[in-house]
Amino acid sequence: MAKQVKTAISPTRDEDYPEWYQQVIKASDLAERSPVRGCMVIKPWGYALWENIMQAMDNLFKATGVKNAYFPLFIPLSFLEKEAEHVEGFAKECAVVTHHRLEKGPSGRLEPAGALTEPLVVRPTSETIIGDSFSKWVSSYRDLPILINQWANVVRWEMRTRIFLRTSEFLWQEGHTVHATAAEARERTRMMLDVYTTCVEDYLAMPVIQGHKSLSERFPGAVDTLSIEAMMQDRKALQAGTSHFLGQNFARASEIKFQTAAENEEYAWTTSWGSSTRMIGGLIMTHGDDDGIILPPKVASAHAALLPIIRKPEDRPVVMDFTEKLARELKEKTYHHRKIGVEIDDREIGGARGWDWIKKGIPLRVEIGARDIAQNSVYVGRRDQTPNKKSSFSRDQFVAEITAILDEIQQNLFQRALAFRKKHTVKIEDRKAFYEFFTPENQKKPEIHGGFAISGWCGSNDCESKIKEDLTVTIRCIPFKNENVKSRCICCGKQSDSPVVFAKAY
Ligand SMILES: [Zn+2]
Q1: What are the CB-based long-range contacts (under 8 Å, 24+) for 438-443?
Q2: C-alpha 273 to ligand 1 mean position (Å)
Q3: Which is higher by pLDDT, 7 or 304?
Q4: For site-directed labelling of 153, which of 240, 254, 316, 390 has its Cα 20 to 30 A away?
Q5: Given a cut of 90, is residue 453 above it in pLDDT?
Q6: Cα–Cα distance between 227 and 311 in angstroms, integer?
Q7: d(CA 133, CA 123)
Q8: Residue 133 has pLDDT above 80, yes or no
Q9: Is residue 446's pLDDT more than 70?
Q10: Separation of 496 CA from ligand 1 center, angstroms?
């Protein structure tokens, strides 16, 4: 007899968290590896999720006056070189185009030919190419502000890749704005971080901590980087969005100048901000359980799977008729600005069918059998509850209450994640306790460690690197909350002006 499988995913999170992550993605049909090393294929179930995230975010951006545009995939190498810190930050992961055609070589095989006079870098981010356009768009203070976003793909040549979390090519959005004053640019930087926070907390149901990055974790070329940090179930941090105040660094590099009202010529102030398909990795690791992913209803690829149960061939017409009518009625309804998404699965594969939808993370599974139809009822399983727990609803009651049920699931996921983060966030003032907190509890599970430590930091690079070297723990952010609360540096004991969040990170 086959070993009884208690959970749909093997290994479980406790047994091997990184492998659990890979298996969950495989079982969910969200995405798969591609023949190109480090790149992923996003399958329809995963892309629908991404579309919903994009839609939510796009609406939030536009509500703040941002407009979408599109810029080239290729950046002339000389553009990238204009900002010294910037090019240094990205140099090690650039894909570079050096030729523009193929010719048969002496061996008879196709070889690159037609060398470019200037190599083109496949965009790792677009500050420099967009900055070039901005320099032409801006001449007077009347042209400001410029508020642009681009939905695109970028390439950062990664040596170690993991689907959604770190891939050589990924999908993202990058916002770029130009302002007349530093204060206005800083305000925009913060505003967009708040937009990310709303999207990630309200839609992805992932609680986050907002804060500033330390100098070493800043975006290359930025004056200030703000981020939102979420805790995954292995208690590591995941950066779910960043917003950068670029000062005048990129304006100088790209010659973005404007005439002030007093007719002086000044460099403009710019910001940039980005979030990517990495958020999907975060969503999986925040909500997933040992049966697979759990999709928050507000961004779920679909909301309900209708599962007609056909025990006898003669039942089929009645059961399918009931199912299709129910689907039509549900699809008429709206849940958070989207029509309710319904999938009908009439494959006759027994219990495996229900498990398929559990692994795909769909919020609701609705079983419809001949006996239920006789009583005009349906049998509903919720993905935020154990697989065996199902409740009977009258058909009409279910139609009437589906949006309330989805809301309950959405809230439940957020509250669970928040409780988990609270449980594993500890204020630590003692250096020994700090080191113990980040020492693996069990050598067999090196990925399980403390969580978030809220501790003092003197601001020195030495203390930051010492902790990174000893524990592979980094400063995730200097949280806005508790800013200017004095304490002692966890490493050297000198005065700390604000506590910081220390954690291991993705
Ligand atoms: Zn220190």
Answers
A1: 438/471, 438/473, 438/502, 438/504, 439/471
A2: 30
A3: 304
A4: 254
A5: yes
A6: 54
A7: 15
A8: yes
A9: no
A10: 8
Q: Measure 286 CA to ligand 1 centroid, in angstroms.
A: 32
Query: Is residue 127 within 8 Å of 244, Cβ to Cβ?
Result: no
pLDDT tens, 33-76?
999 989 999 999 999 999 999 999 999 999 999 999 999 999 99
Q: Which two tokens stand for residue 124?
A: 């790792």
CA of 476 from ligand 1 middle (Å) equals: 16
**pLDDT surpassing 60 at residue 24:** yes
Please report, in angstroms and rounded to a whole number, the separation of the first and last CA atoms in the chain: 40
Q: Cα(303) to centroid of ligand 1, in Å?
A: 50
Q: Which residues contact 466 (CB under 8 A, 6 or more apart)?
A: 491
pLDDT value at 444 more than 80: no
**Ligand 1: centre distance to CA 439 (Å):** 20
Distance 458 CA to ligand 1 centre (A): 4
pLDDT digits (tens, 9 = 90+) for 334-387: 999 899 999 999 998 878 999 999 999 999 999 999 999 999 999 999 999 999
For ligand 1, the distance from its centroid to the CA atom of residue 505, given in whole angstroms, is 21
Ligand 1 centroid – CA 27 distance (Å): 45
- Tell me, in angstroms, the distance from the centre of ligand 1 to residue 289's CA: 39
What is the SS3 string spanning 409-453?
HHHHHHHHHHHHHHHCEEECCCHHHHHHHCCCCCCCCCCCCCCEE
Neighbours of 220 (CB within 10 A): 18
Cα 429 to ligand 1 centre (Å): 12
Q: What is the Å distance from ligand 1's center to 90 Cα?
A: 29
Distance 456 CA to ligand 1 centre (A): 8
Residue type, 183: A
- Alpha-carbon distance 19 to 239, whole Å? 21
